[in-house]
Amino acid sequence: MKELTVDAAVENIDTVTAFVTEELQKLDCPLKAEAQISVAIDELFGNIARYAYSPDIGKATVRLEVEKEPLSVIITFIDNGVPFNPLKQAEPDVHATAEERQIGGLGIFLVKKTMNLVEYTYRDGQNILTIKKNLR
Q1: Which site among 47, 87, 98, 136 is 20 to 30 Å from 108 CA-CA?
Q2: Which tens digits make up the pLDDT trace of 44-56?
Q3: Model's pTM, two decimal places?
Q4: Cα separation of 8 and 20, whole Å?
Q5: Domain 2-134: which topology?
Q6: pLDDT (tens digit, 9 = 90+) per residue, 44-98?
Q7: Model pLDDT for residues 111-121, shown as the tens digit of each residue
Q8: 85 phi and psi, to 5 degrees?
Q9: Angle 41-48-14 (CA atoms, 0-180°, nearest 5)?
Q10: Domain residues of the chain, as ranges?
Q11: Which residues are within 8 A (CB) of 13 and not within 5 positions of it... i.e. 6 or more apart?
């Protein structure tokens, strides 16, 4: 298991993405899966950075684990910010036109559609959001 703790700030999205991508490349991760994971990081860490501690900045931890059978990565985002379960948000109407569609919700919708598992829990004062992506 590898772990990275950084300020929950938008400017650290690239740091988190690089941390995960480095490990994915060691696993010979398919480019499609790597791109999907990058989008998920952008969405999930970005939401933590924008909303968890607003207007302050707190810490966020990103934990990466690898499972062998089937080969998959598990990425867990942990913060001590305001309790918030993004999985309980209403799904966007993807059939509506851009003008008709409500703002927000599309990013988490994409994460749920592209990851093999997305789970949220609030425990011991922490938001814990876990995603899993099978690589083979």
Answers
A1: 136
A2: 999 999 999 999 9
A3: 0.91
A4: 16
A5: Heat Shock Protein 90 (3.30.565)
A6: 999 999 999 999 999 999 999 999 999 999 999 999 999 999 998 766 555 555 5
A7: 999 999 999 99
A8: -105, 100
A9: 40
A10: 2-134
A11: 41, 42, 45, 46, 49
